[in-house]
Amino acid sequence: MENQKQWYANKDLYEMLKCFKQEVTELRLEMRETKTLIRNYNELRENINEVTEKINKI
Q1: Tens of pLDDT, residues 7-42
Q2: For the whole model, what pTM was predicted?
Q3: 54 lies in a domain?
Q4: 10-28: buried (b, 16+ CB within 10 Å) or exposed (e) per residue?
Q5: pLDDT of residue 6
Q6: 27 lies in which domain range?
Q7: Rounded distance between C-alpha atoms, residue 54 and residue 40, angstroms
Q8: What separation in angstroms does the CA of 3 have from each of 6, 8, 13?
Q9: Looking at the domain assignment, is residue 2 inside a domain?
């Protein structure tokens, strides 16, 4: 049987996973903020459309 080397040490894998977890957490927060911004934008668009319709009726 061939001598198999580990690609990464356990400590290295742990550090990579720890970093990955932090990145995922940050990404989740950014996605939540983006979702909020999109919702706010859509509400503004709805308000603009309503006002535009009212102005056109006048």
Answers
A1: 889 999 999 999 999 999 999 999 999 999 999 999
A2: 0.66
A3: yes
A4: eeeeeeeeeeeeeeeeeee
A5: 82
A6: 10-58
A7: 21
A8: 10, 15, 21
A9: no
How many angstroms separate the Cα of 40 from the Cα of each of 17, 25, 34, 44, 47?
35, 23, 10, 6, 11
Specify the number of domains making up the chain. 1
* Alpha carbons 36 and 32: distance in angstroms, whole number: 6
The Cα–Cα gap between 15 and 22 comes to: 11
Tokens of 56: 């056109």
Amino acid (1-letter code) at residue 21: K
The pair of structure tokens assigned to 31 is 């996605």
Pinpoint the alpha helices (H) of 1-58. 10-57
